[in-house]
């Protein structure tokens, strides 16, 4: 019988966070997530609370003196019973650039009609 080697969880998380491998397929729609739900890391440690759901990211309130997070879709692992789980450890959250809203793509410039 063949034995399939698996990438250790921590290494897998790093590779996903760096964009070297795709995140696991989600089995939920972002529209399923509701404000007020808890957000936990990939080890179930509390990170914050969903404040708002945007088209490409979640706004996560972490506390009074802690910056708000703007978690992109690629940072989401799974949703279960009113809880959103990230696919990275809480310790990495501050290093991933999620403390600023993602830049929206530049609108396509439409040519001006000639007069």
Quick structural overview:
The chain is mainly beta and 115 residues long. The protein contains one helix and six strands.
The total beta strand count reads 6
Can you tell me the CATH class of the domain at 27-95? Mainly Beta
Distance between the termini: 74 Å
Q: What gross morphology would you assign?
A: globular
Radius of gyration: 17 Å
The CATH H-level homologous superfamily of the domain at 27-95: PRC-barrel domain
Strand proportion, as a percent range, falls in 25-35%
Count of discrete alpha- or pi-helical segments spanning 4 or more residues:
1
Strand order of the largest sheet: 4-3-2-1-6-5
| Nearest-integer average pLDDT | 79
Low-confidence stretches: 1-5
Q: Which H/E pattern describes the elements?
A: HEEEEEE
- Helices and strands: which structural class? mainly beta
* Main sheet attributes: strand count, strand direction, barrel closure: 6 strands, mixed
Question: Keywords for this structure?
Answer:
globular; SH3 type barrels; mainly beta; 1 helix; 115 residues
Your description of this structure?
The chain has 115 residues and is mainly beta. The chain has a domain at 27-95: PRC-barrel domain (SH3 type barrels), CATH 2.30.30. The chain contains one helix and six strands; from the N terminus they run H-E-E-E-E-E-E. Strands 4-3-2-1-6-5 form a six-stranded mixed β-sheet, with no helix packed on it. The longest helix has 9 residues, at 9-17. It starts with 8 loop residues before the first helix and ends in a 29-residue tail after the last strand.
């Amino acid at each position: 019988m063949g034995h399939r080697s698996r990438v250790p969880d921590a290494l897998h998380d790093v590779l996903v966070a760096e964009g070297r491998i795709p995140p696991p397929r989600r089995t939920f729609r972002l529209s399923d997530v509701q404000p007020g739900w808890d957000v936990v890391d990939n080890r179930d440690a509390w990170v914050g609370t969903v404040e708002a759901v945007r088209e490409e990211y979640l706004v996560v309130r972490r506390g009074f003196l802690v910056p708000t997070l703007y978690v992109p879709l690629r940072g989401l692992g799974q949703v279960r019973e009113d809880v959103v789980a990230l696919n990275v450890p809480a310790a990495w959250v501050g290093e991933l650039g999620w403390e600023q809203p993602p830049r929206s793509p530049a609108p396509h410039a439409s040519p001006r009609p000639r007069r």
